[in-house]
Amino acid sequence: MKKLINNPNNVVEDMIEGYLNAHSDYVKMIEGESRALITSRETTKNKVGIVIGGGSGHEPAFLGYVGDGMADGVAIGNIFASPPPGPIQAVTKAVDKGAGVLYIYGNYTGDIMNFSMAAEFSELEDDIEVESVVVTDDVASAPKEEKEKRRGIAGSFLVNKVASAYAAMGYDLQEVSRVARKTNEQMRSMGVGLTPCYLPQTGKPSFEISEDEMEIGLGHHGEPGVEKGKLESADKVTERLVNDILIDMPIENGQDVVVLVNGLGSTPAMELYTVFNKTKHMLDKIGVNIYHSYIGDYVTSFEMGGCSITLLVVDDELKRGIDYPVDCPMFVQKGRA
User: Fold this and answer.
1) Where in the chain is the domain with CATH 3.30.1180.20?
2) Tens of pLDDT along 121-151?
3) Hey, which residues are catalytic here?
């Protein structure tokens, strides 16, 4: 394992300090809470606050998505671990503008427990109304009839994108929560793992795989997938991922989708665009239009090799959220005219 780190036990603190020094015009730390960052820009009174968070190691998620048109604050956990309730509550109090706060996080036991505790404390101690949307886009992690058990993976980026846009447009907490849940409901993801990442504290790989193998449905922390086999061509892998999504969520001729091809940390852009190319050809063949596409590293796992594909079916309401302009340190998008 080769990494540009100092003390392995301080990698998160070193990252946060560097991030704050680089982007002080975007974000600031809450005094006394080293794992709680909020926007350094003034937000509108009576705007719904958007709070995101999760374990470190997924950068640019989650700290990279605090800014104009995206989240108002983020709670940062240890490597692949949920942030504790304290930083989440601190962020909640700091971003509340009198209209309540929406939490967006992945469907993991630690996140559910800690965000739920923070919501309870925020409501009882700070009199802040809190709603939560748990992202469950990973098709591989549970059968369709138990989709509430599915993991949240790269789709959390799109839920954050749409919900944050509606918050910025001035909608109330109930509407922002509703459109976030709608985004999650109309979205599916499927991934493939090629190589593991190595955790800084242990130096050990996140999972074991041979040089000539791939694992379909691998989780972002190295959770087991649905099938391990010989590595196939980009087109064959893409066919498997897209077909599994379409079986789980049939998309009709004439519908519009957003496509996210997300790299896991070490997959070159050349390969991600090759995957996107095959995805587009498959969607063209069934008469599905790509309304917007995102290709790159949006939710990673250190230097893990592989990618995921996310399809989000969009109507006019969700298109408004997708089109809304964003200015964050790690993600910028111009508004669509």
Assistant:
1) 188-333
2) 999 999 999 999 999 999 999 999 999 999 9
3) 58, 221
